[in-house]
Amino acid sequence: MIMIKGLYKSFENEGQEVEVLKNVNLTIEDGDIFGIIGPSGAGKSTLIRCFNLLEKPNKGEIIVDGVNITKLNGKKLRDFRKNMGMIFQHFNLLQNSTVYKNIAFPLEISGYSKDFIEQRVLELLDMVNLKDKKDAYPSMLSGGQKQRVAIARALALNPKYILSDEATSALDPLTTRSISDLLKFFNKKYGITIILITHEMDVVKEICNKVAFINNGRIIEWGNTYDLLNFPKSIEIKQFVNENNFKIDKEELFKNVS
Amino acid sequence: MLAETIILIFRALFETLYMVIFSTLFAIIFGFPIGLVLVLTQKGGLLENLNLNNALNSIINTARSIPFIIMIIILFPLSRIIVGTSIGSTAAIVPLSIAASPFVARIIETSLNEVDKKVIEAAVSLGANIPQIVFKVMVKESLPSLISGITLTIINILGYSAMAGAIGGGGLGDLAIRYGYQRFRTDILIATVIILILFVETIQRMGSKLSRKFDKR
Ligand SMILES: Nc1ncnc2c1ncn2[C@@H]1O[C@H](COP(=O)(O)OP(=O)(O)OP(=O)(O)O)[C@@H](O)[C@H]1O
Ligand SMILES: [Mg+2]
């Protein structure tokens, strides 16, 4: 479980302090697929980057399984990060390493034996359906294949959590669907808790059981996906939902989320 | 006569190779850590430290603004301390290595900075520590560029070594000046020039080929 309490983050921009996150409070339960939505510049990426301390918050607590991780550093922080994989919009793979080597990277830096690494990488390649691309370089892969390599890499150390910052934004609708299905599969099969940012309402509708709407650095509302999208309390979400055609009907929700 | 000339040229070639190989090696040994520290301590770097970064930059810029021939003269006494003599190819390696180090530091800095920041961030998110990020991500990702940079370094050091040769270091530059220029031995002059051209050509070709081989982008 992740509890965020009174989180603040500001950046220094040309000598001026800009507050990007303002008193964020959230709880993410184990097994959730937790969506974060909101307009561009709202602070979504900054928030998700606080979860694994790529950004250090100015104030507030992030309590992951009972530990306030904002205080971690050095080896403790690195070990914590190994329990929280991350995937990105532009995949961020090692360009000069093969698919195999990319997925082996987190295992190699954690000091596993060659045999164990080989066994685990092959297992992962099988899960993301890329066995035949083992020796290919990222430049030879399609966007969807690259993202699957990135997912395998993020899962290599068996993390409890996955962070996803617009992992499907660079992909076409069909590929988006296959990637979001894959995330849902890992959530269901291995109970991995997923926190994801997306601009695509299909992704929210199809896989998120909870969603938070963030605007201007504040969480406007968060909760059950169906309720939040269909019966939002705030006018901002109503507008956003209408603009993005975010509404869902209950049947669709039951079909996909439960 | 011809045999003598050939021996002369081969000895000079050997001295040049000796100077270039070892000077390049030491220049990389000194220059790599400096270039790496420049990258790590820069703004937004993994070990950001602007005071150290500024100080290093100033030192490098100062060193690079001294003409090489002056640098050699300044550094030759150091050779006496380090290798016990200030004459000959071995003595020339000391100023050559030191003079080329700031150049190498810049080459390394530029290459490592070409690595996509997002790829480094992905490694951080996977729990990599700094040595792992440096060697398994930064060096590996920038290998083609590092190889091109080292190729350039070798060619530069070859040029420097001719100057070092002229003031007591031996080698092809020394041969060209003492025989070709001062004793009007045009044949030796032409031979050295041809050897130097072939040398540069070979190094450049090998460097480019190797660089392409490691480039999978
Ligand atoms: N390193 C930084 N330095 C200064 N300002 C920053 C930095 N990172 C983000 N910001 C600012 O913080 C605000 C929120 O940025 P963030 O990237 O979190 O938004 P976002 O919701 O992810 O937007 P998008 O949907 O466009 O990705 C923006 O105004 C941005 O300019
Ligand atoms: Mg963003």
From TrEMBL, chain A:
SUPFAM superfamilies given in the database record: P-loop containing nucleoside triphosphate hydrolases
Biological process according to GO: amino acid transport
Top-level division of the source organism's lineage: Bacteria
Domain ABC transporter: 2-241
Keyword field: Amino-acid transport, ATP-binding, Cell membrane, Membrane, Nucleotide-binding, Translocase, Transport
One GO molecular-function entry: ATP binding
Record bears the keyword ATP-binding: yes
Entry-linked Gene3D superfamilies: P-loop containing nucleotide triphosphate hydrolases
GO CC annotations on file: plasma membrane
Family: Belongs to the ABC transporter superfamily.
Protein name: Methionine ABC transporter ATP-binding protein
Originating organism: Caloramator australicus RC3
UniProtKB/TrEMBL annotation, chain B:
Ranges that cross the membrane: 12-39, 59-78, 146-168, 188-207
Domain of life according to the entry: Bacteria
SUPFAM superfamilies linked: MetI-like
Subcellular location per the Swiss-Prot or TrEMBL entry: Cell membrane
PROSITE patterns: ABC_TM1
InterPro entries: AA_ABC_Transporter_Permease, MetI-like, MetI-like_sf
GO biological process: D-methionine transmembrane transport
Alphabetized UniProt keyword annotations: Cell membrane, Membrane, Transmembrane, Transmembrane helix, Transport
Keyword Membrane: yes
Keyword Transmembrane attached: yes
Topology in membrane: Multi-pass membrane protein
All copies of domain ABC transmembrane type-1, residue ranges: 13-207
Family designation: Belongs to the binding-protein-dependent transport system permease family. CysTW subfamily.
PANTHER family for the chain: ABC TRANSPORTER PERMEASE (PTHR30450), D-METHIONINE TRANSPORT SYSTEM PERMEASE PROTEIN METI-RELATED (PTHR30450:SF1)
Protein name stated in the entry: Methionine ABC transporter permease protein
Species assigned in the record: Caloramator australicus RC3
Lineage per the UniProt record: Bacteria, Bacillati, Bacillota, Clostridia, Eubacteriales
